[in-house]
């Protein structure tokens, strides 16, 4: 017993720490720090091993150059892992310790080592603890997501925090997810290059988005980004009204939503989305019409304390024929004329703002918007109030210096016809 005691006392201080402290120390260190620790003391390798395998990241866009894993950055590293797995077997490696996987945009392509060398199948086997049927290569994404869904249904007993990154088309397989568990959703609409998609395509996109939001009842953060390529609205808003009303109902029912972000063309420039009552942070950067502004002015936004608004108008440069916007049957045609760049709201319902941000010099705002915001919202700080009052005065003093889309606005030209106003 004495030699053993002497051996223990002869250990360096690092090895004399209580066992429970090692997890905290290793968890605090980054990957490079853990590697350096192993070089100094190989005795604690078995403690470090689970942390080394905790995250596998092959998405180059998420990497921190100061903290790079051996499994990250280059395709050859994924290939090497696949080769070692084939040689030694998955059970001999640390796959069971993986807690986080980060995939790049090409990882599910047929040429990717994840697919080509069978590494994705190994991951799937580890998740399910049983062998799965091998599907076609072009079905790898669906296969992997379906496995995750089945696993979560069997093993996850509490709601998960799931974020779908912005830019996904509405063809994304949402049916593979438990939408009621989503707490954060960032979704992009159809990003095809079509500037004037058929009305049927718009209707379909509205219906799909409505279905997704109707199921995502636990959302706390929602960002919807419209079509960045859509410069013309293909039909009067009346033709989309039934579907837009259903979409509004789905958004209204998001009772837990705290933050709402809306950007670009959301189906039609006169479609104003009324935020749910509990929304506290509202960020707006859409393409809008005068009718949109009229609806915004009438919405009280009772709990919104932070408003960031940078709306664009549909400029004549992209507007095309007036018929692509309005028809004589459109009930809002007169007040929603996109050419009425200078107009007033006269009143504003929102009174709860504590944080406000906009830029009327570069974006499309009513002539009295800043003044109304300051008057109706006493909760704004004095510095904010003074800033926007000064901006309002300067704007009124030099209206012809107001710029939209980087081009000087000709107030004597009718933007609908290109002819001088009479």
From TrEMBL:
PROSITE patterns in the cross-refs: FBOX
Domain F-box positions: 11-56
A matching Pfam family: F-box-like
Listed InterPro entries: F-box-like_dom_sf (IPR036047), F-box_dom (IPR001810)
Highest taxon listed in the record's lineage: Eukaryota
Protein name: F-box domain-containing protein
Natural source organism: Orbilia oligospora (Nematode-trapping fungus)
């Amino acid at each position: 017993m004495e030699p053993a005691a002497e051996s223990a006392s002869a250990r360096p201080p690092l090895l004399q720490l209580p066992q429970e402290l090692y997890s905290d120390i290793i968890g605090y260190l980054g990957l490079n720090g853990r590697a350096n620790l192993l070089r100094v003391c190989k005795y604690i390798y078995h403690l470090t091993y689970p942390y080394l395998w905790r995250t596998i990241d092959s998405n180059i866009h998420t990497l921190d150059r100061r903290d790079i894993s051996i499994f990250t950055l280059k395709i050859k590293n994924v290939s090497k892992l696949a080769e070692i797995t084939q040689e030694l077997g998955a059970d001999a490696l640390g796959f069971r310790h993986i807690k986080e996987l980060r995939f790049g945009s090409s990882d599910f392509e047929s040429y990717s080592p994840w697919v080509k060398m069978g590494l994705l199948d190994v991951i799937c086997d580890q998740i399910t603890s049983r062998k799965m049927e091998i599907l076609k290569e072009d079905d790898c994404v669906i296969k992997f997501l379906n496995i995750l869904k089945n696993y979560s249904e069997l093993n996850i007993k509490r709601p998960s925090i799931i974020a779908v990154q912005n830019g996904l088309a509405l063809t994304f397989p949402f049916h593979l997810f438990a939408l009621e568990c989503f707490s954060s959703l960032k979704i992009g609409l159809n990003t095809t290059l079509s500037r004037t998609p058929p009305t049927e395509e718009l209707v379909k996109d509205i219906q799909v988005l409505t279905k997704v939001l109707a199921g995502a009842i636990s959302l706390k953060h929602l960002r919807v980004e419209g079509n960045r390529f859509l410069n013309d609205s293909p039909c009067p808003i009346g033709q989309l009204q039934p579907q837009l009303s259903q979409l509004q109902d789905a958004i209204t029912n998001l009772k837990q939503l705290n933050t709402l972000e809306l950007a670009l063309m959301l189906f039609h420039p006169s479609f104003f989305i009324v935020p749910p009552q509990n929304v506290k942070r509202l960020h707006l950067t859409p393409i809008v019409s005068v009718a949109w502004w009229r609806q915004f002015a009438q919405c009280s936004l009772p709990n919104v304390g932070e408003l960031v608004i940078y709306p664009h108008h549909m400029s004549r440069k992209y507007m095309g024929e007036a018929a692509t916007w309005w028809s004589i049957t459109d009930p809002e045609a007169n007040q929603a004329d996109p050419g009425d760049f200078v107009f007033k709201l006269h009143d504003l319902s929102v009174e709860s703002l504590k944080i406000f941000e906009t830029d009327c010099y570069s974006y499309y705002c009513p002539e009295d918007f800043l003044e109304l915001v300051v008057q109706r919202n006493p909760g704004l700080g004095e510095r904010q109030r003074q800033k926007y009052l000064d901006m309002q005065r300067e704007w009124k003093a030099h209206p012809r210096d107001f710029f939209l889309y980087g081009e000087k606005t000709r107030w004597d030209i009718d933007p609908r016809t290109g002819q001088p106003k009479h």
